[in-house]
Amino acid sequence: MPWARAAAGERCGWVACRKNVGAVLAEQTDEWTEARRYMGLDVLAKARLRLIAGDTPAPNPLPQTLTA
Predict the structure, then answer these.
(1) Considering its fold, how many domains does the chain have in total?
(2) 3-class state of residue 19 by DSSP
(3) Is 55 part of a structural domain of the chain?
(4) Which long-range contacts link 48-51 to residues 24+ away (Cβ below 8 Å)?
């Protein structure tokens, strides 16, 4: 993006933009890895549970007419 400008007023080239995007993606990957590492086995087990048909309550039906 040759028209983009950095905060100090200097031009931002493709190489600098690519480095910045790479750094952001690497940081997000590190944060995701850390969060996953500390996730307990009980949380993972609950995430894998499947609902049994008929075990959930019926949704509340919407009224057919509106009242003021």
Answers:
(1) 1
(2) helix
(3) no
(4) none
Q: Residues in the chain, how many?
A: 68
Q: Is the pTM of this model over 0.70?
A: no
Task: Please report whether residue 54 resides in a domain.
Answer: no
Q: What angle do CA 9, 15, 16 make, to 5 degrees?
A: 40
User: Mean pLDDT, consecutive 10-residue segments, the chain of 68 residues?
Assistant: 54 80 88 76 77 67 68
CB atoms within 10 A of CB 17: 13
* Distance from C-alpha of 36 to C-alpha of 34, rounded to nearest angstrom: 5
Q: How far apart are CA 46 and CA 40, in angstroms?
A: 10
Give the model's pLDDT for residue 63: 66
